[in-house]
Amino acid sequence: MKTTEIIMIPVSDQQQAKDFYLKLGFEVLAEASMGNGETWLQMGLPGQLTTLSLAKFQGIIFETDDIKNEIDELKAKGIVAGQIDPTPWGQFAWLQDPDGNKLCLHQK
Question: What is this structure's pTM?
């Protein structure tokens, strides 16, 4: 894994959360319909690589340069990741830690 890319924070009111994080100094980096009635809202602090996504679900996205190799390495360590999901924004594969926290690998 190369870097922590996105931390997804579950929120009940996306607009209220957006206003709060704007007051903290965050900027909107992406805001677009996800096609399922929800909006992808990604925010970040100026100059920082790790961003926040304010959504209805929780998770952490880790960027990788080679998602297939990363999954193979995890499998060799006994960690199971889901199938690679190709999207217009890159390839994603989800996994969970022992407490059920959702983690995601992302290759751009």
Answer: 0.87
Q: How far apart are CA 1 and CA 65, in angstroms?
A: 8
Q: Which of 100, 98, 91, 97 is nearest to 5 (CA)?
A: 91
pLDDT digits (tens, 9 = 90+) for 70-85: 999 999 999 999 999 9
- And the tokens for 25? 């100094």
Q: What is the CATH number of the domain that holds 41?
A: 3.10.180.10
